[in-house]
Amino acid sequence: MAGAVILTGANSSAGLHASEHLLKAYPQYTAIFTVRSSAETDVNTNALRAIISRYPKSKASIHELDLANLTAVHNFATNISDGITSGQYPAIKSIICNAYYWNLVADPELTVDGFDKTLQVGHIAHVALILRLLDRFSPDGGRIELISSVGHYRKKTPMSPYLPEIPDDLDLLIHPRPDSDKLGRGAQRYGTLKLVITTWLYPLNEYLQKDPKLAKITAVAINPGNLGDSRAFRTNTPNSVKYMQKFVAKPLMPLIRRFVDPTFRPSSEAGVDIIELGVGKADDGERGYYTLLEKDEPDPTVLDKEKQHKIWVKSAEWAGINKSNTALKVAFE
Length: 333
Prior knowledge:
eight-stranded mixed sheet; two-stranded parallel ribbon; 41% helix
């Protein structure tokens, strides 16, 4: 078998298109799709099931994984690790961390682990998953793909006047303060999530390269573009955002793309690129930040070595990772 590809958030807008492209273009891989709910009543998971049914020869499975519960994440990692050891699954070729969460209409929410839900679902849980499974990658190496965003850049956006930031007190990342501006602060938390993800990428690559057994695993972060048709704009968002998508973003997408933002595009294109960078180009030896499929420069904050170190240390701590439960021991010496 060619290898396993783990894709979180497989029933999201881009995730569904990524899942289909993986099954269609790379049928030799075993697809391990994770979703928050695998219930028969979940319309998005049923859409994923319908996609899988169109490829009867595919090696695909759907796994319920609540990234807002770190115990569930560690148990999932253990089950996948044991499955690879037993031969149920082939060695890992790629881990694609596509899932995320936002809420633009409420105060920050805490998970059962006591962390901000946006940061845990989009980052902390993925840190645990990646670092627990590094020793289950193919000896030939593979790829870790994180999903960043243009929102990680420290610039004001139409949805928020507040800049993404990595504060000196990192406790503010996991316990952000309530604010009367739900939309602005919620969008800031999303941008900060993407800034943290992109910053964490760099020490991850640095440590992987220091371990001869893991050095062939490369990590990248992709800004997949502004996805005007994403259902995220209809989930936990105020009516102003819903109306913006319905009456502006979707009908005017070709014009916006041509004259305003060349990365403004449908989720279908993003899903294809996510798989191409995470699977199709998994052996190209490249690392770093991408806009679509082109190498790019991240926000300068990302390249701050002190911030990289602080984010690395705290991310491992929050995720429950230490020298005893990851193969990346060089990072904990």
